[in-house]
């Protein structure tokens, strides 16, 4: 939570100092086509690769591959999560201005984007002895807002909902001979992740990002990354 507040303070501070329109873009002309990577600091360090592609209209598609680790007693397991989602975004002004109540219309600037993403993800875990994979793809839903200046500092606040696969000791039935001591189980409860991200557009086509994520099931994580934007 400490990282969360520091990230918001830094974002707001640099947004005030940002030079308006230095890349010739409108402040809310957020880029939805990108390719990049992030370094992850969590239970075990890792790396994430991600790519997004703007589609016709308000749609875009994303692919992400995250590789880090989880610990069980004195053993560490490599964890790889592959995700694919399709998203849609709209300016808050476009949403509110399309609504009228009793003949009253709104006139609101697009000072932030509202977005939602729906897709699937799969998980695999392994170490030197055991290897598991969660073959059934799990639903993954993300919703949030994107704000700030596309010529300098941007920010995101989001919520991520999905079930998580975990490693647990395998319960061998009485009378059976079992060759493995641990197995992968799907958590019964949907994990709720909440996160914040700050993005600094260094040039028209490059940016660095800082992200913090809290989770009901997993350890909180901090990420720093680099991306190309188009």
Index terms:
two-stranded antiparallel ribbon, 2 helices, single chain, mainly beta, 230 residues, Lipocalin
Describe this entry's structure for a reader:
It is a single chain. The chain is mainly beta and 230 residues long. The protein has one domain (2-229): Lipocalin, CATH 2.40.128. It contains two helices and 14 strands; from the N terminus they run H-E-E-E-E-H-E-E-E-E-E-E-E-E-E-E. The strands form three sheets. A ten-stranded antiparallel beta barrel has the order 1-2-3-4-7-8-9-12-13-14. A two-stranded antiparallel sheet has the order 5-6. The protein has a two-stranded antiparallel ribbon with strand order 10-11. The longest helix is centred in the first third of the chain and has 16 residues, at 2-17. The protein is elongated. The mean pLDDT is 85.
Question: Uncertain spans, ≥5 residues at pLDDT below 50?
Answer: none
Fraction in beta strands:
over 45%
Quick one: overall form?
Answer: elongated
Report the average pLDDT across residues: 85
Overall number of structural domains: 1
CATH class: Mainly Beta
Report the helical percentage: under 10%
How far the N terminus sits from the C terminus, by CA atoms, comes to 32 Å
Q: Would you count the extended β strands for me?
A: 14
Which structural class should the secondary elements be placed in? Answer: mainly beta
What layout of secondary structure does this protein have?
Elements: H1 2-17, E1 34-41, E2 46-54, E3 59-72, E4 75-91, H2 92-97, E5 100-101, E6 104-105, E7 112-126, E8 131-148, E9 153-162, E10 165-169, E11 182-186, E12 191-201, E13 206-215, E14 221-229
Antiparallel strand pairs: 1-2, 1-14, 2-3, 3-4, 4-7, 5-6, 7-8, 8-9, 9-12, 10-11, 12-13, 13-14
């Amino acid at each position: 939570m400490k990282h969360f507040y520091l990230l918001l303070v830094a974002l707001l501070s640099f947004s005030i100092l940002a030079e308006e329109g230095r890349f010739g873009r409108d402040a809310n002309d957020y880029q939805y086509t990108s390719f990049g990577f992030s370094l992850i600091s969590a239970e075990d360090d890792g790396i994430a690769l991600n790519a997004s592609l703007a589609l016709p209209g308000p749609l875009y598609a994303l692919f992400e591959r995250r590789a880090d680790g989880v610990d069980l007693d004195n053993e560490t397991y490599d964890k790889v999560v592959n995700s694919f989602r399709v998203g849609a975004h709209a300016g808050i002004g476009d949403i509110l201005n399309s609504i009228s109540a009793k003949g009253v219309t709104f006139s609101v600037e697009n000072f932030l984007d509202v977005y939602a993403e729906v897709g699937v993800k799969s998980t695999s875990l392994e170490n030197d002895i055991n290897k598991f994979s969660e073959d059934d793809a799990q639903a993954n839903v993300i919703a949030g807002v994107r704000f700030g200046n596309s010529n300098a500092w941007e920010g995101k606040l989001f919520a991520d909902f999905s079930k998580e696969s975990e490693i647990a000791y395998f319960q061998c039935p009485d009378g059976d001979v079992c060759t493995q001591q641990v197995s992968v189980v799907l958590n019964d409860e949907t994990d709720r992740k909440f996160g914040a991200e700050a993005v600094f557009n260094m040039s028209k086509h490059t940016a660095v990002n800082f992200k913090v994520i809290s989770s009901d099931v997993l350890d909180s994580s901090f990420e720093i990354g680099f991306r190309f934007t188009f």
